[in-house]
Specification:
By secondary structure, the protein is an alpha+beta fold. 30% of the residues lie in helices and 21% in strands. Strands 1-2-3-4-5 form a five-stranded mixed beta sheet, with helices on both faces. The site of coenzyme A has 20 residues, from strand 4, helix 3 and helix 4.
Length: 156
């Protein structure tokens, strides 16, 4: 159960700066300019994207979930699929059910949009993120290592 003082709601425009603050905490390698561009992209297509936020006292945001509709996803058999693009709760607010409540909203949105499956991803090294997914009913369908090689100095 989420703390009584925390409410999960669909993102309002006035909450965009707070959402960007949390996005930056989840994806610190992404530049502010790129965050702003992605925010515009997400909000310009709310038929295919959804953002829910956890609002605490004094309107501060403690977490968010971003979901979208995918036609296919690793290990899934139906279409469309609700896809978790981002899921984050501030470190001091974790372990209190906020992540679970955010995910539940995203799943309800996916069901309302005709989805029968939900999919997501997490870095292999993100043990906590993987554990939280499993605790909330996700099964791990693949662990994939990605590789790169410069072809400039080192051709095959
Ligand atoms: C993943 C995350 C959003 C979960 O948020 P949260 O508010 O702590 O989640 P909840 O308190 O609702 O817990 C959800 C489930 O995860 C499990 N869980 C949470 N923290 C855990 C931990 N430290 N170790 C093991 N399991 C844990 C719980 O067992 C819980 O299941 P339960 O309700 O049956 O006990 C949060 O840990 C986070 O922001 N992590 C960093 C970002 C990230 O990894 N995102 C996911 C990949 S993009």
């Amino acid at each position: 159960m989420t703390p009584r003082s925390v409410h999960i709601v669909a993102l309002k425009r006035s909450q965009i700066p707070e959402w960007q603050r949390l996005r930056t905490a989840l994806w610190p390698h992404v530049t502010s300019e790129q965050h702003r561009k992605e925010i515009v992209d997400v909000l310009s297509d709310l038929e295919f994207n959804a953002v829910y936020v956890a609002v605490g006292s004094e309107r501060k945001l403690h977490g968010f979930v971003e979901a979208s509709l995918h036609l296919t996803a690793e290990g899934c058999h139906s279409s469309p699929i609700g896809y978790i693009e981002g899921w984050y709760v501030e470190p001091e607010k974790r372990g209190k059910g906020i992540g679970r409540a955010l995910l539940k909203k995203a799943e309800a949105w996916a069901i309302a949009n005709g989805c029968k499956e939900m999919a997501s991803d997490a870095e292999i090294a993100n043990v906590l993120g993987r554990e939280a997914h499993r605790a909330l009913g996700f099964e791990e369908v693949n662990t994939l290592a990605h590789f790169r090689k410069s072809l400039k100095d080192n051709p095959a």
